[in-house]
């Protein structure tokens, strides 16, 4: 089969490798129907040191169950499934507490002998806990929306949910990437009336407005902070959803959050140390939350919304490529020529 | 009157100064009945550069209203009142949202022409919003408990409240100072059954056990983290209440918190930058919360509990001094000879 590997910054290759096979009795093999490239894939695409070994890439995919291990009980060959971006048993103590991305037995695609999702087939560990079956006949037009439940939309939803977005609260979303726009859509669905989107790519912020943003702030840094403060009558935002992951985005977040407010991060932090003392978070009783979205916990409810036509984050995909063109897809996202790239098979 | 000033590290003096007078129509003058020394007063006591000007000290006091400005409507001369450690109008947008310590018109004792609470009398700005009248005849035996509502107990309560302590959750409290012990008491009252107190001063942790701690961990650093992990079956604590304010306490907090857990800080951070990236908070979806306690918001309910005899944080006071002995009181707390020092007049 063909699969995607990264060898270093800017160096993504599609190679032919053996098809995956069942190794554990709890595995399933999924023949991939749609996959995509994640904003988080761009971090190593920009900075990863070159090496002799390639890392399997991709962690978002839809597909058809091709084979199952003997211990798999909830799936059959031929089932159409969504794979959350992390695998988990969905039954350990942390899964039961709603933190499936910290599953004691779970893990991430693309390492420890588990392949990536930007491939024609994937071995999915802990298949009963990890794969969500889509019932009935599925209209191909729904594929993009269904694929967003693998990561991007539900990551935006996680930000909004952990930020306790609700009616009457002003929400600021930092970042006009696909996760930021998903956060706008999720915030709107959770009842926010005032949603300020901080981003400077017009085509993206236009989609943000379609998704529910009421204000767009193109300025960054101190100017951006000043503009949000002005828009909120000098009070600041109740909730800030940080969907970038770089330190300046976090600095913007604590600059615009109001006393008692919440900063909810879903952009994977590209920093470890950052200000959290009296002058940034503590003095104004700001809550900092977020992390890798426990997509599995949100997926069942969101799936119903998509199938019933009430939720469509699909427009975050604006470019479609075949598996051989995945490296070009990375470049398109890196150049911001594409917002989010769908991979078809 | 006599009042306390700090001139530098270790240099606390009681001086005779003019009695305070009404300056604004919203002021009240309170004749102080009981005051105390705060753990946060020890930070400058250990590190403040020497200077020619003394800073008025103290921000916790009970007393009797001696005079009121013309605009004060809710208080009369002779009322017995509790002063929250910050003053506020209790009516601005942030006060209404429950963040009285960020009141737009509020402030802190000991600067900008407002004196400190370790004094025979205090000018209280925004008296209607700041002072809470204690109804009826008050038994002097209740003074210590009532004084804890000015800061220390309700700061511990703020930690527990923001940490979303509830039945079924394991709580770890870092710090066996008066705030830490208050946090133990508050966590117990909010329903926590398992409360692990990290502290190494036996007389203090004994009081912590009286207040509801079920386990005491004397080890610090990696050993302390390992011990808490062992006590929680390797899972970590749902809630960590950080009542110290130094970086190692924060590091301990993210070391023992479980995935999806909450770190709630009320120790005033003596640092600005700290780890919050994938390896500390983000990766396990840890929420960081806390700040200066909006005591005014919690005070009415807690006052009823104290007056009805259901709540008694008074035992955090273990040494009583007169106003002239306040400098000795600082030294006793700094030496850990005293847990918390009450000042009588």
From TrEMBL, chains A, B:
Domain Alcohol dehydrogenase-like N-terminal: start-end pairs: 26-135
Show the GO MF annotations. metal ion binding
Q: Which domain of life is it from?
A: Bacteria
Q: Which cofactor does it need?
A: Zn(2+)
Which keywords label this protein? Answer: Metal-binding, Zinc
Q: Which ranges carry the Alcohol dehydrogenase-like C-terminal domain? A: 178-290
Q: Which PANTHER family match?
A: DEHYDROGENASE, ZINC-CONTAINING, PUTATIVE (AFU_ORTHOLOGUE AFUA_2G02810)-RELATED, ZINC-TYPE ALCOHOL DEHYDROGENASE-LIKE
Q: What name does the UniProt record give this protein?
A: Threonine dehydrogenase
Tell me what organism the protein belongs to. Microterricola viridarii
């Amino acid at each position: 089969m063909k699969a995607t590997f990264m060898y270093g910054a800017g160096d993504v290759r599609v190679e032919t490798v053996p098809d995956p096979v069942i190794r554990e009795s709890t595995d399933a093999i999924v023949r991939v129907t749609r996959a995509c490239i994640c904003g988080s894939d761009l971090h190593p695409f920009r900075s990863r040191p070159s090496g002799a070994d390639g890392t399997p890439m991709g962690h978002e995919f839809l597909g058809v169950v091709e084979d199952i291990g003997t211990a798999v009980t909830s799936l059959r060959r031929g089932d159409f499934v969504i794979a959350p971006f992390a695998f988990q048993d969905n039954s350990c103590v942390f899964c039961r507490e709603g933190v499936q991305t910290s599953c004691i037995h779970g893990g991430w695609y693309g390492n420890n002998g588990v392949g990536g999702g930007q491939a024609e087939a994937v071995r999915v560990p802990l298949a009963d806990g990890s794969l969500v079956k889509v019932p009935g006949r599925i209209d191909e037009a729904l594929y993009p929306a269904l694929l967003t439940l693998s990561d991007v939309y539900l990551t935006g939803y996680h930000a909004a949910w952990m930020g306790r977005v609700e009616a009457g609260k002003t929400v600021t979303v930092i970042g006009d990437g696909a996760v930021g726009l998903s956060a706008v859509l999720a915030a709107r669905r959770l009842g926010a009336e005032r949603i300020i989107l901080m981003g400077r790519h017009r085509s993206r912020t236009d989609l943000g407005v379609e998704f529910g943003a009421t204000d767009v702030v193109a300025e960054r840094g101190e100017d951006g902070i000043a503009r949000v403060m002005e828009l909120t009558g000098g009070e600041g935002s109740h909730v800030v959803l940080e969907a970038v992951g770089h330190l300046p985005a976090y600095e913007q977040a604590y600059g615009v959050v109001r006393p008692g407010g919440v900063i909810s991060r879903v952009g994977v932090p590209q920093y470890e140390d950052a200000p959290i003392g009296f002058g940034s978070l503590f003095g104004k009783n700001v809550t900092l939350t977020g992390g890798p979205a426990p997509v599995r916990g949100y997926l069942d409810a969101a799936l119903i919304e998509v199938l019933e036509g009430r939720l469509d984050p699909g427009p975050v995909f604006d470019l479609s490529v075949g598996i051989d063109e995945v490296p070009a897809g990375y470049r398109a996202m890196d150049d911001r020529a594409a917002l989010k790239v769908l991979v078809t098979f």
